[in-house]
Amino acid sequence: MGYLNPGAGAAREGRRTAAVTDAAAATAAAAAGATPTKAEYDALLADVNALRTKLNALLAAMRTAGQMAP
Protein backbone atom coordinates (compact mmCIF):
# COMPACT_ATOMS: atom_id res chain seq x y z
CA MET A 1 0.00 0.00 0.00
CA GLY A 2 1.38 3.36 -0.97
CA TYR A 3 1.69 6.37 1.29
CA LEU A 4 -1.14 8.84 0.76
CA ASN A 5 -0.59 12.46 1.63
CA PRO A 6 -3.99 13.93 2.53
CA GLY A 7 -2.97 17.32 1.13
CA ALA A 8 -1.84 16.00 -2.26
CA GLY A 9 -4.26 13.09 -2.64
CA ALA A 10 -3.60 10.27 -5.09
CA ALA A 11 -0.75 12.20 -6.72
CA ARG A 12 1.40 11.24 -3.72
CA GLU A 13 0.53 7.55 -3.78
CA GLY A 14 3.62 5.36 -3.75
CA ARG A 15 4.82 3.71 -6.96
CA ARG A 16 6.71 0.46 -7.29
CA THR A 17 10.30 0.40 -8.46
CA ALA A 18 11.18 -1.74 -11.47
CA ALA A 19 12.69 -5.08 -10.52
CA VAL A 20 16.44 -5.27 -10.12
CA THR A 21 17.90 -8.77 -9.84
CA ASP A 22 19.89 -9.80 -6.78
CA ALA A 23 23.64 -9.44 -6.80
CA ALA A 24 25.53 -12.60 -7.69
CA ALA A 25 27.41 -14.56 -5.06
CA ALA A 26 30.82 -13.20 -4.17
CA THR A 27 33.74 -14.78 -5.99
CA ALA A 28 36.49 -13.42 -3.75
CA ALA A 29 37.77 -15.45 -0.82
CA ALA A 30 39.96 -14.58 2.13
CA ALA A 31 43.60 -14.07 1.21
CA ALA A 32 45.72 -17.17 1.68
CA GLY A 33 48.63 -15.22 3.14
CA ALA A 34 49.44 -11.87 4.67
CA THR A 35 49.63 -10.21 1.27
CA PRO A 36 46.87 -10.84 -1.28
CA THR A 37 47.90 -12.20 -4.66
CA LYS A 38 46.98 -10.49 -7.92
CA ALA A 39 44.29 -13.11 -8.53
CA GLU A 40 42.78 -12.52 -5.07
CA TYR A 41 42.83 -8.77 -5.64
CA ASP A 42 41.28 -9.10 -9.10
CA ALA A 43 38.47 -11.32 -7.72
CA LEU A 44 37.68 -8.73 -5.05
CA LEU A 45 37.77 -5.91 -7.59
CA ALA A 46 35.36 -7.80 -9.86
CA ASP A 47 32.95 -8.28 -6.94
CA VAL A 48 33.09 -4.60 -6.01
CA ASN A 49 32.48 -3.56 -9.61
CA ALA A 50 29.51 -5.94 -9.89
CA LEU A 51 27.98 -4.53 -6.71
CA ARG A 52 28.55 -0.98 -7.97
CA THR A 53 26.67 -1.86 -11.17
CA LYS A 54 23.76 -3.35 -9.16
CA LEU A 55 23.59 -0.31 -6.88
CA ASN A 56 23.54 2.06 -9.85
CA ALA A 57 20.75 0.00 -11.49
CA LEU A 58 18.72 0.16 -8.28
CA LEU A 59 19.20 3.91 -7.92
CA ALA A 60 18.22 4.45 -11.57
CA ALA A 61 15.06 2.35 -11.07
CA MET A 62 14.15 4.38 -7.98
CA ARG A 63 14.65 7.66 -9.87
CA THR A 64 12.50 6.40 -12.75
CA ALA A 65 9.72 5.43 -10.33
CA GLY A 66 9.87 8.87 -8.74
CA GLN A 67 11.02 7.53 -5.38
CA MET A 68 14.03 9.81 -5.30
CA ALA A 69 15.08 13.01 -7.01
CA PRO A 70 16.89 12.75 -10.35
Strand content: under 5%
| Helical residue percent band | 25-40%
Cα gyration radius (Å): 19 Å
Total number of domains: 1
Number of β-strand runs: 0
Mean pLDDT across every amino acid position:
84
Instruction: Compute the separation of the termini in Å.
Output: 24 Å
The major β-sheet equals: none
What coarse outline follows from CA principal-axis ratios?
rod-shaped
- Which segments are poorly predicted (pLDDT under 50) over 5 or more consecutive residues? none
Structural class per helix/strand content? mainly alpha
What does this molecule look like?
Helix content is 39%, strand content 0%. It is mainly α and 70 residues long. It has one domain. It is rod-shaped and about 60 Å long. 0% of the residues are buried. The model has no long low-confidence stretch (mean pLDDT 84).
Précis, in short:
The protein has 70 residues and is an all-alpha fold. The chain contains 1 helix and no strands.
Write the layout of secondary structure elements.
Blueprint: H1 38-64
Which key phrases capture this entry?
70 residues; mainly alpha
